[in-house]
Fold this protein.
Amino acid sequence: VMERWEEPYMKKLAEIATSKASSLVTGGGGAVLELGFGLGMSAQFIQSHAPKHHIIIEMNRAIAESAHIFANRQSGQVTILEGIWQEIVPGLESESFQGILFDTYPLSEEEVDVIFYPFLEHAHRLLAPGGVLTYYSDEATWFSDEHLAALREVGFTKIDGELVPVTPPQDCLYWRQSTILAPIVEK
């Protein structure tokens, strides 16, 4: 469950996801895929970079309704796709996104620390050459060897990251560190 203390991290992830798709940078903009809407923090930050098209996949019906309201209030093109990403993503066109931000909620205990691993192969297929992937990494300081191996196994070779300072409350159940790694993974 997303909490407000994550705002600096969501802002950084949105900045990364739009770095190749922003109308403010490229003049024409490109498409950004966002998986998971949550409180809409990253979606709002993505919109501030004016991508040509912003597609959001959200599986929770109530949160998807909030995403639809958000989309209707934006001046740019925002499309909401309701359902689980595992069913929607295979139907998306290859090499059609300049940026991807993956931040979904785990559906099982086994997914908690590696929820993005099954998505990596899809991300590589969906990204246009030069496109960038970022996601909630569950890494406090740098990529683990296992994490790097998973990225390389699907074809990513340009892997970097940025540490984002955060201040989670003492009673936070899922994050206790003072930094989170924001992956910058380019195709």
